[in-house]
Design goal:
214 residues, mainly alpha, Arc Repressor Mutant, subunit A, Tetracycline Repressor, domain 2
Length: 214
């Protein structure tokens, strides 16, 4: 029965159609709301179906389960972040402004896609090296593209003297790690605005912590 439903779902998606994709998008939006309300681990198919105003059987006609919905969400969010980073890196702005825009855009994405993007950062990224699925391969490629864009921004600043001398890759890893670690404490519902965090992080990275002597 599961195999038959999976085949029907695959055939339906292959056939395309605006209505089918519209339903899938509605389910993704409903799941995002459920994940915000209950957390990813506690959420289940019944919760998502109820939020999407359909029965559970109908839900599984469009998605194989919570994990598949989650991967669709994360894939869209991560792809958006990569395109954002690449666009910023290719712009004519100064390297410091590029880096600030990148951090601001990243925290805007964290807030918009909360909490499932953090679930990916916290739980799924460590599994990608062992997972050989098509989804994991795609995510690893996106991750490399994001890293390369950040490195490009920093190398630009090193080359034109905007940044103090250093290793671009090491600096990129440090900045990305600092932003990603916010999954341990950042929660938009607690009144901490992503924009304020982005400003604080940008100032910390660009100005440093040691007071400049007059």
């Amino acid at each position: 029965m599961v195999r038959g439903l999976s085949s029907r779902r695959s055939n339906a998606r292959s056939a395309g159609g605006d209505e089918y994709e519209r339903k899938r998008k509605a389910i993704v939006m409903a799941a995002a709301a459920v994940f915000r309300e209950k957390g990813f681990a506690a959420a289940n198919g019944d919760d998502i179906a109820k939020k999407a105003k359909m029965d559970r059987a109908s839900l599984y006609y469009y998605y194989g389960g919570k994990q598949e919905i989650f991967r669709d969400m994360v894939g869209e969010a991560v792809t958006g972040n990569v395109l954002m980073a690449e666009q910023i890196a290719a712009s004519a702005d100064s390297a410091p402004n590029k880096l600030r825009r990148l951090i601001e855009g990243l925290f805007s994405s964290y807030a918009h896609h909360y909490p499932y993007l953090f679930v990916f950062v916290q739980e799924e990224m460590t599994r990608l090296t062992k997972d050989k699925s098509t989804w994991s391969i795609t995510m690893k490629r996106l991750d490399r593209r994001f890293d390369d864009a950040v490195i490009k921004i920093i190398q630009n600043g090193l080359d034109d003297g905007s940044f103090n001398p250093g290793d671009a890759r090491l600096m990129a890893v440090a900045i990305i790690g600092m932003c990603n670690w916010s999954h341990r404490w950042f929660d938009p519902s607690r009144g901490i605005e992503g924009a304020k965090i982005a400003t604080a992080f940008s100032d910390l990275v660009l100005n440093g912590m040691v007071a400049k002597q007059a």
